[in-house]
Design a protein that fits this description.
ten-stranded mixed sheet, 27 helices, 24 strands, about 60% helix
C-alpha cells in the first residue's frame, strides 16, 4: 500500500510532464483502435450489402466472375440462354426464378458528356430492374424503367451528380451508345459504399449490354419454404448439369467479400504498421521521461532505501507510475480511436466511398487490444529506468552520486551499437548485390532493422561527435549563449541520443520512400524515352476497354500517320516440351507496334512476330520451355473456333519495365482463329502524327474523343506527369501517416526540454543572477532544441537514403535502373527539422523565462 501511495503521489506531482507521455500513448493507441474500428466498419458495410443483394441461389455462365464483374475481353458479359429458366423452375425446391442482365463494362455520362462513374474506383453497374433489386432497394422518386427510353439511378449517384427526373443519360457499352432519361431514383435499404447503379427494363438491358434478346447474365432463384440454400443449389445443379455456375447466397457474398478483402487488408496492415512506428517513437519518449524523473528523484530514492525500502519496492514504485500512465493514456486513446474512425469515414466520403455511422463497428477486441498494447508498451519502456533506480545504493543516492558504472555501460552500448550497425550495413550490401529480388528483399529487411537498432543503440556516442560539429557550424555564431546550448545538449548524451532517435525513425522512412519514389519515376521516364516511339497513348478509365466505335473515331482523326491496336487476351498454350498452360496471356497488336514500342530482343526481330501465324515469347518463358526461333506453339485463343499453330519469330528481353513478360502476335492472326463478334477489345491505342503535325493532331484527338470521356489522350509529357502525380499522391499519403510518428517525436523533444529545464532550475537561477537575460535564456533553450532536432534529422536522412539506395538496386532487377536522390525534398525535410526544434522549444523556453530567480537559486 505504501508503494502505491508513493507512486500516486509522484505521478500527480509530475502530472504536467506525464501528460506529454500520455499524449504519445494516446495517439498511438488511438491510431491502432481507429484503424481497427474503421476496417471493421467497412467489413460490416460490405457484408450487409453482399448478404442483402444476393438471392438464395444464383445461376450464371461457366466463365463468369464469382463477384459479378464483367471479365470478358469482348466488353460484353458472359450470358446464358433464356431456356435455362424453365429448367430451373422445374427443379425441386424452387419457389421462383427470374432472369437478369447486368454489366460493369459500361461508361455512363450525363447530358454534358461528364462521367457519372465513381471517383473512388467502385464499379459502375448497369442492369435490368428485377425482383431481387426491388427487395433491397426502395424507389423514392418516379417509377421503375418501363421502356427503352427509361433509366433509374441509385439515390447516392443522383445526389452526387444532382440528377433529377427527366435528365438525359448516355450509356456507352461494347454494343453501342444508348440514350435514356431518368424515370426514377431508388435508395438502398443498406449502405451503398460507392457503386453507381443504373437500371433499365429487361429487354432494353439485353439489347444495350449484350446486343441480343433471349439471354441473361444471371438467374436469381428463390427457395421454397423450408428448403435450405445448400439443398436448393444441389437440386438446381442436378437439373442443369455442369454447364453453368451455381452459387448459394453465402458463396456469392463470400466471393464478393474476398474481392474487397485484399484491399481492406492492405489498408489495415499499412495503417497498423504506421501506428507501430508511432509506438516505437513513443517508447523513446517514455524512456526519456522516466529516466529524467528517476534522475531528479535520486536523493528521494536514497532516503526511501535508507529507511527500509527494498530495491524491488523502488522498482515497483516506478513501474506503478508507468502502469497508471499506460492505463490513462490507453483509455483516452480508445475513445479517440473511435473519433479517428469516424473522421476516416468522413474522409472516405469526400473521396467517393460512402460509409454510414449506422454501421460503426466496435468489437470488444478493439478496446482490449488498445489497452493491452498501451499498458504493455508503457511498462516495458519504463522498465530500464525503474531497474536503474533500484540499483542505486542508499549512500550514493543521498550523495546524489548518480548511477554507478555509467562509463562501463557507455562502452558496452557503443560496442553493441557498432556491431549491430556493421551487421546491418553488411546485410544492405548483400541486398544491393543480390541476383534475385526475392532474395535481396529479405536481406534488405534485415539490414533496415539492424541498422535502425544499431543507430538507436549507438546514438549517444554519435551525439557526442555530431553535436560538437553542429555546435561549430550552427551555435558558435550565437556567442556564449550558443556555447551553453551546446554544452547542455552534450551534458547527457544518452538523453540527446534517445530524443534524436525518436525523430530519426520517422525521417529515415520519409527519406527512404522519397528516394524510392523518385527513382521509380526517373526509371520509368527513362524507359519511356528509350522504348516508346509513339506520339500519343489513348487509354480508358477504370479498367474499361476501348470499343470499336471509339477506335474508328481515333482512326478518323486527320494528321495521324498511324494508329496501333493493342488487344490482350488469354489462350491455352501447348509448348514444344509437351506442357499445356491454361489461361496464358498473349497480346494481338498491329505490326506497327514493333515501331511504337522499341522492345529489345535476345533473338530474332519483333517485327517478324506480326507475320501470319507467327508470335513472340519472352526470355524467361523460352528458357523454361526450351523454345528457340522456329519453335511452334499450339495456341487455343479464348473464344476461338480452332487451335492455331504459331511459329516463334522473336524472343524478347526481360530487361525492361514496359510490357515486361508480354507475348505478341498480330491482330490479323488472332482474327483468323477468333470470330469477329468474339474478338477482344483494345486495352489501349497508340497513335503517331505525321511529321510536323503533332500539336494539331493532339488537339484533333482531344476533339474527336470528346463524346467518349472514359478515354484519355496523353502525349509522352502527359504520361510522365501522370506517372509522377500517381506516385506523388501515394507518397503524400504515406507522409501523412508518418506525420503521426513525427508528432510523437516532437512531443518527445518538448518533454526532454521541459524536464531538462526543471533539472537545471538552480543552474538557471544562478545564470540569471549573474546577468543572463530572459531573452538569452530562451534563445539558449531554443538552440539546444534545434541542435537535437538537426542531429536526429542527420541520422534519419542519412540512414533513409542508404535504405532507399539499396531498395533501388533491387528495383533495378525489375528494370528500374535509375537512382535519383530527391535533393529538394531532403533539404526541405532537413530545414523543416530545424523549425520543428524551434517549435518544440516554445513552451519550455517560455516557462524557463518566467522562473523567479531567487526561488530558482533556493531549489535543492
Amino acid at each position: 500500500m505504501t508503494v502505491l501511495k508513493t507512486s500516486m503521489r509522484n505521478f500527480f506531482a509530475h502530472k504536467g510532464r506525464m501528460a506529454l507521455s500520455a499524449v504519445a500513448v494516446l495517439l498511438s493507441v488511438a491510431f491502432v483502435c481507429g484503424t481497427l474500428v474503421f476496417t471493421d466498419t467497412m467489413n460490416t458495410t460490405f457484408d450487409k450489402l453482399f448478404q442483402a443483394t444476393a438471392s438464395d441461389v444464383t445461376v450464371s455462365a461457366k466463365g463468369s466472375s464469382d463477384t459479378g464483374q464483367t471479365t470478358s475481353r469482348t466488353g460484353k458479359p458472359p450470358v446464358i440462354p433464356a431456356s435455362v429458366i424453365g429448367r430451373i423452375r422445374g427443379a425441386h425446391g424452387v419457389k421462383s426464378a427470374e432472369g437478369t442482365v447486368f454489366s460493369t463494362s459500361v461508361t455512363v455520362v450525363d447530358g454534358d458528356k461528364d462521367k457519372l462513374s465513381p471517383s473512388s474506383g467502385a464499379p459502375t453497374i448497369v442492369g435490368s430492374w428485377n425482383g431481387n433489386d426491388a427487395r433491397t432497394m426502395k424507389i423514392t422518386t418516379g417509377t421503375a424503367p418501363k421502356g427503352p427510353d427509361d433509366v433509374m439511378v441509385d439515390a447516392d449517384t443522383a445526389d452526387k451528380h444532382d440528377l433529377k427526373l427527366g435528365d438525359e443519360i448516355g450509356l456507352i457499352s461494347a454494343v453501342g451508345t444508348r440514350h435514356a432519361r431518368v424515370s426514377g431514383i431508388a435508395a438502398f435499404k443498406v449502405t451503398n459504399p460507392g457503386a453507381a447503379i443504373f437500371y433499365l427494363d429487361t429487354k432494353t438491358a439485353q439489347r444495350a449490354l449484350v446486343g441480343e434478346s433471349g439471354v441473361y447474365t444471371n438467374v436469381n432463384v428463390t427457395a421454397a419454404e423450408g428448403v435450405s440454400d445448400a439443398r436448393l443449389k444441389k437440386d438446381v445443379a442436378a437439373a442443369l448439369g455442369h454447364a453453368y455456375k451455381v452459387q448459394t447466397a453465402k458463396e456469392v457474398a463470400d466471393a464478393n467479400q474476398k474481392s474487397v478483402q485484399s484491399f481492406l487488408n492492405v489498408m489495415k496492415y499499412a495503417m497498423l504498421g504506421f501506428a507501430g512506428i508511432a509506438f516505437l517513437v513513443g517508447i523513446f519518449l517514455i524512456i526519456n521521461t522516466f529516466s529524467m524523473l528517476v534522475a531528479q528523484r535520486t536523493r528521494e530514492i536514497g532516503l526511501m532505501r535508507a529507511i527500509g525500502s527494498s530495491r524491488k519496492q523502488v522498482n515497483r514504485s516506478v513501474l506503478l507510475e508507468a502502469l497508471l500512465l499506460g492505463v490513462i493514456g490507453s483509455a483516452l486513446g480508445v475513445g479517440a480511436g473511435v473519433g479517428i474512425a469516424v473522421g476516416l469515414m468522413k474522409l472516405m466520403g469526400q473521396m467517393g466511398m460512402h460509409l454510414s455511422t449506422d454501421d460503426l463497428t466496435v468489437a470488444w477486441t478493439t478496446p482490449a487490444l488498445g489497452l493491452l498494447l498501451g499498458v504493455v508498451v508503457t511498462v516495458l519502456a519504463a522498465y530500464l529506468p525503474a531497474r536503474r533506480a533500484g540499483k542505486i545504493s542508499p549512500m550514493a543516492a543521498l550523495r546524489d552520486a548518480g548511477t554507478p558504472a555509467d562509463a562501463k555501460a557507455g562502452i558496452v552500448r557503443a560496442v553493441v551499437g557498432l556491431v549491430l550497425t556493421g551487421a546491418g550495413a553488411w546485410s544492405l550490401y548483400v541486398a544491393a548485390t543480390a541476383d534475385k529480388a526475392t532474395t535481396g528483399s529479405g536481406w534488405l529487411g534485415l539490414g533496415v532493422v539492424l541498422t535502425l537498432i544499431g543507430f538507436v543503440v549507438v546514438g549517444p556516442v554519435l551525439a557526442g561527435g555530431l553535436v560538437r560539429v553542429l555546435g561549430v557550424v550552427i551555435l558558435r555564431i550565437f556567442g556564449p549563449v550558443g556555447r551553453m546550448a551546446e554544452r547542455n545538449a552534450l551534458r547527457n548524451p544518452r538523453r540527446t541520443g534517445a530524443t534524436g532517435a525518436a525523430l530519426m525513425i520517422g525521417l529515415a522512412l520519409v527519406a527512404c520512400l522519397s528516394v524510392v519514389g523518385s527513382s521509380m519515376v526517373a526509371s520509368a521516364t527513362d524507359q519511356l524515352d528509350k522504348t516508346v516511339g509513339t506520339d500519343f497513348i489513348i487509354t480508358p478509365d477504370n479498367e474499361q476497354l476501348i470499343k470499336a466505335k471509339e477506335v474508328a473515331a481515333v482512326k478518323s482523326v486527320p494528321g495521324l500517320a498511324r494508329v496501333t491496336e493493342y488487344r490482350p487476351t488469354v489462350a491455352a498454350f501447348t509448348t514444344p516440351d509437351g506442357k499445356t498452360l491454361e489461361k496464358t496471356d498473349i497480346t494481338g497488336a498491329d505490326p506497327s507496334y514493333a515501331t511504337d514500342l522499341r522492345t529489345k530482343t535476345v533473338a530474332g526481330d519483333l517485327k517478324d512476330a506480326y507475320l501470319p501465324d507467327s508470335m513472340s515469347v519472352h526470355e524467361a518463358f523460352a528458357e523454361d520451355h526450351g523454345i528457340h526461333l522456329g519453335s511452334r506453339i499450339t495456341v487455343a485463343f479464348q473464344n476461338g473456333t480452332k487451335a492455331a499453330h504459331l511459329t516463334v519469330r522473336a524472343i524478347t528481353s526481360d530487361d525492361t519495365v514496359i510490357d515486361k513478360g508480354a507475348m505478341y502476335t498480330s491482330v490479323a492472326t488472332m482474327a483468323k482463329y477468333v470470330p469477329a463478334d468474339q474478338m477482344p477489345l483494345n486495352q489501349l491505342l497508340f497513335a503517331s502524327a505525321e511529321d510536323g503535325r503533332q500539336a494539331a493532331a493532339y488537339k484533333a484527338l482531344k476533339t474527336a474523343l470528346h463524346d467518349y470521356p472514359e478515354l484519355t489522350v496523353r502525349d509522352q509529357t502527359d504520361y510522365k506527369k501522370a506517372l509522377k502525380d500517381q506516385i506523388g499522391q501515394l507518397l503524400n499519403m504515406i507522409y501523412g501517416l508518418l506525420a503521426l510518428a513525427i508528432i510523437v517525436a516532437v512531443l518527445g523533444v518538448v518533454n526532454t526540454l521541459a524536464l531538462s529545464v526543471v533539472e537545471r532550475t538552480r543552474e538557471i537561477g544562478l545564470m540569471r543572477a549573474i546577468g543572463l537575460s530572459r531573452r538569452q535564456l530562451r534563445r539558449m533553450i531554443r538552440l539546444e532544441s534545434v541542435v537535437i532536432a538537426v542531429f536526429g534529422a542527420l541520422l534519419g536522412l542519412g540512414l533513409g537514403m542508404g535504405w532507399g539506395a539499396t531498395a533501388q538496386k533491387l528495383l533495378a532487377l525489375q528494370g528500374l535502373k535509375v537512382l535519383e536522390i530527391p535533393w529538394p525534398t531532403i533539404v526541405a525535410v532537413f530545414v523543416g527539422s530545424a523549425f520543428v526544434g524551434l517549435f518544440a522549444a516554445l513552451i519550455p523556453a517560455f516557462r524557463a523565462g518566467r522562473m523567479n530567480v531567487l526561488n530558482a537559486i533556493a531549489t535543492e
